[in-house]
Write a structure and sequence with these properties.
heterodimer, A: 12 helices, B: about 300 residues, mainly alpha, MetI-like fold, 2 domains, about 0% strand, disordered N terminus, disordered C terminus
């Protein structure tokens, strides 16, 4: 027994029982519902499976991967994902920095800033289906769409089919609309962490408000921007799918609004029977998606770290 | 005494001399930028509030009114849209399903997250360290990758029901919520636990009487986030739930917006119905939610 004793452990019999019951059960449920399906799908991606358990799948090696990587639609999806992400990054970071700095440093009226904080966070508590449905009605084609009705005030018979014609900018905009609130709060928190004494000291040294903003607030902001850039990247590459699924359930015309997540989802539901084993094909796409998402996020994180060092 | 005053006055006047020109420039620049940002913020607020306001007024219209002018106020306020949505479109049962799933997931989450956080935060053992790393790693897997394999798994074992959904809503958040709560529990003083152990209290007692009361703010925040998350969850529900008696509100909305039986007004009424509970919760708990979120992310950043 002595060999099993581990240094620096503070476990007692009672603790093992507690950890075994609560932590153990949680871990088992997690393994069943979140780990096993993922590992199973990676394994099945080397087979030729169409979703029916009655049919025995054949091992086909990397055929599915080859199929995904040579599919034009998949690359369009990757491109769309990155465009949406870029729109989100630019819009969200611009607005977040602007709003957070204003709300913390520009001494607004208390009720006014409380109002902004309250309103800007509302999109974060609404369901994606509610957001998607409302915005889909706003961008509806024909004269009943709110956008068309708005432009119709200036030009008679204005009719643009927004979602079919400009799916990606619209999805990028709606996704940014949802994202500002949360990151604004984290940014405000990180600006408030800067000690007020620094500003006092700067004032004594004769630095004006703008200078204080630039030399004291901005470094704190930058630290948070790094975090926001990576979070948006990660969320967006993996999560664009939900909102796209509502706007354009089949990925638009020849995949003009396809994103990686939707590609995985549609093949997985066997909606696309263009390949012999659509489900395993979707699993292969999922693995490729995971690799792309993880490697791009890690790379950007590394890059941001480098930039930070130089500042 | 006198000397010090002279010094101070001199320093101040020096400062003033040095500061004055830039201060005036700053004053104007600051005022202008303040107003520019204020205009942007007002526009952004309108972009958020107007669509919601518009959905509310649209929910009182009939199709003809909606078609003729989407901007206008309803000429006749059609309260029956809500009745139709609640009774005929079956939103009363979807609402109950949502309540059931949300509450069930909340209870499961609180049990699993608070105990796991305590174990990860205070127990020292390589196995527990490993589990912590493992959760941190799997937290990064995008949810969409799990959807399809989960769907086939649940179909195979005939688990496509509300109970599975409840368990999923609880278990999927465990790593993230633990990650929020662990720093909080770690902050509890070890000597308290040791004292309790000395007195012969077992772990269940320590957890229930010491850890839980002391980490109540973190528990509360996890509860809030979980309730909002489960109430709104759409993707998982639409993938797993095929039987209309098990629909939750988001699935019901998806179902009704694509159907031709109901008018636009009824469709918008369903949106409002599912929005209201969460807006009320947000309005009441706005402060703890915002504070909690920002402090949590402060740790992350």
């Amino acid at each position: 027994m002595k060999a099993l004793k581990i240094k620096n452990s503070n476990m007692t019999r009672s603790r093992w029982i507690f950890a075994g019951i609560f932590g153990g059960i949680t871990l088992v449920i997690y393994l069943i519902f979140c780990v096993y399906p993922l590992l199973d799908s990676i394994y099945m991606s080397f087979f030729n499976w169409n979703g029916y358990y009655a049919i025995k799948p054949d091992w086909i090696g990397f055929e599915n991967y080859k199929g995904v990587l040579t599919d034009e639609i998949f690359w369009r999806a990757v491109k769309n994902d990155f465009i949406i992400t870029l729109i989100k990054e630019v819009v969200i970071i611009f607005l977040v920095v602007l709003f957070a700095v204003t709300l913390t440093r520009f001494k607004l009226n208390k009720a006014e800033s409380a109002f902004y904080k309250f309103v800007f966070y509302i999109p974060n508590i609404l369901s994606v289906i509610i957001i998607g449905t409302i915005w889909r009605f706003i961008f509806l084609s024909g004269e009943t769409g709110l956008m068309n009705a708005f432009f119709g005030l200036f030009k008679d018979g204005f009719d643009v089919d927004w979602i079919t014609e400009y799916p990606i900018p619209i999805i990028g905009f709606v996704a940014s609309w949802c994202g500002v609130g949360l990151f604004m709060l984290t940014m405000i928190a990180s600006i408030n962490q800067v000690s007020e004494e620094l500003y006092e000291a700067a004032k004594v040294d004769g630095a004006g408000e703008m200078k204080q903003l630039w030399y004291i607030t901005m470094p704190a902001v930058w630290l948070q921007v790094t975090f926001i850039v990576v979070s948006i990247l990660y969320q967006s590459l993996g999560g664009n799918f939900a909102i796209v699924n509502i706007f354009a359930p089949t990925g638009g015309i020849r995949g003009n609004s396809m994103v990686m997540g939707l590609y995985v989802y549609l093949y997985g539901q066997s909606n696309y029977a263009t390949v012999p084993g659509p489900v395993s094909f979707s699993y292969a796409a999922a693995v490729i998606m995971l690799i792309i998402t993880a490697s791009v996020s890690l790379f950007v994180k590394y890059l941001m770290g480098k930039v930070e060092e130089r500042l | 005494m006198r000397n010090r005053n002279i010094y101070e006055n001199a320093a101040e006047s020096d400062l003033r001399k040095f500061d004055r020109p830039s201060k005036i420039k700053d004053g104007i620049g600051l005022a202008i930028s303040k107003w520019v940002v204020r205009v942007i913020m007002i526009i952004w607020s309108l972009l958020i509030l107007y669509p919601m306001f518009w959905s509310i007024i649209t929910s009182f219209k009939d199709t003809a009114q909606f078609m003729s002018n989407p901007w206008a106020f309803p000429k006749r306020w059609l309260y029956t849209n809500y009745e139709t949505a609640w009774v005929k479109a079956d939103f009363s049962s979807y609402f109950m399903n949502s309540v059931l799933v949300t509450l069930g997931a909340l209870v499961l989450t609180l049990i699993m997250v608070s105990t796991s956080s305590y174990i990860i935060a205070k127990y020292k053992h390589p196995v527990i360290k490993f589990v912590e790393r493992f959760y941190a790693l799997f937290m990064m897997v995008p949810q969409v990758l799990l959807l399809i394999p989960l769907m086939y798994m649940c179909m195979k074992y005939e688990m496509t029901n509300l109970f599975t959904l409840m368990v999923l809503y609880a278990i999927q958040g465990v790593p993230f919520y633990c990650f929020l709560m662990v720093p909080f529990v770690r902050g509890i003083n070890d000597s308290l636990l040791e004292a309790a152990q000395m007195d012969g209290a077992n772990e269940f007692y320590i957890f229930a009487r010491l850890i839980l009361p002391m980490s109540l703010p973190a528990v509360f925040m996890v509860a809030l986030l979980n309730v909002i998350g489960s109430w709104n969850e759409y993707v998982m529900a639409i993938t797993l739930i095929k039987n209309s008696s098990d629909f939750t509100l988001p699935v019901g909305i998806n179902n009704i917006t694509s159907s031709a039986t109901f008018s636009y007004g009824v469709k918008f009424a369903t949106l409002i119905i599912s929005m209201i509970p969460i807006l009320i919760i947000y309005a009441i708990f706005q402060k703890p939610l915002q504070n909690g979120l920002s402090s949590a992310d402060g740790v992350k950043g």
